[in-house]
Design brief:
Layout lengths: L2 H47 L9 H8 E6 L2 E6 L4 E8 L4 E8 L6 E8 L13 H4 L12 E3 L9 E3 L5 H23 L1
Parallel strand pairs: 6-7
Antiparallel strand pairs: 1-2, 2-3, 3-4, 4-5
Length: 191
């Protein structure tokens, strides 16, 4: 082996070792920060759907003093002092996964709030499922026997909400996702 090839091999090994060490150091440093940010995001979303006011600088303390975490089977519930219950939901949308947090009033049949934390639907169409204006219509809707999505402007009954015009596939996927998760969580909570 000639000197030039040996230098290239040594240089590559040293650069790989230095680069790998730097990446490992960055990973060790950022992992707890990422976990804390995820915890704050989840807890602030739960506080939002339970309608508990909070200051951004004290989210964790306010969550800990106002919300009780209940685990039943493999599911997690978040219970407010007023009896409202929230839970995280997830499932397939039309184009990708959708996840969020829903809360129910103490009666466990009336929606308090829904918040979408992640979605991959078409922006401006199916992506509207994450907009506050769209999600407002779910407030005070009853989930029994099931939540029904109607053509826009046609929702009249206590368990009906407007679908998104031009996003029929996303609306159907969201309807199925919400109803399946509500059924699963309520069956576990009541059982």
């Amino acid at each position: 082996m000639n000197k030039a090839a040996l230098r290239i091999i040594i240089f590559t090994l040293v650069m790989g070792l230095v680069s790998g060490s730097l990446l490992l150091g960055v990973n060790i440093y950022t992992t707890p920060l990422i976990a804390r940010n995820e915890e704050i995001k989840m807890k602030s979303s739960v506080l939002d759907v339970l309608e508990i006011a909070y200051d951004k600088s004290a989210i964790i303390g306010i969550f800990d003093s106002n919300v009780t975490i209940l685990k039943k089977d493999s599911l997690t519930f978040y219970k407010a002092h007023d009896g409202a219950v929230a839970f995280e939901f997830a499932g397939p949308g039309l184009w990708g996964p959708v996840s969020g947090i829903a809360s129910l009033e103490r009666d466990l049949k009336t929606i308090r709030n829904i918040k979408i934390t992640h979605q991959e639907e078409t922006p401006g169409l199916g992506g509207r499922i994450a907009e506050k204006e769209y999600l407002k219509q779910f407030k005070n809707k009853e989930i029994s026997p099931r939540l029904v999505f109607m053509p826009e402007g046609k929702a009249a009954k206590i368990n009906e909400v407007d679908a998104i015009t031009g996003a029929t596939g996303s609306s159907r996927a969201f309807e199925k996702l919400i109803n399946e998760n509500l059924k699963k969580y309520l069956t576990t909570l009541k059982g």
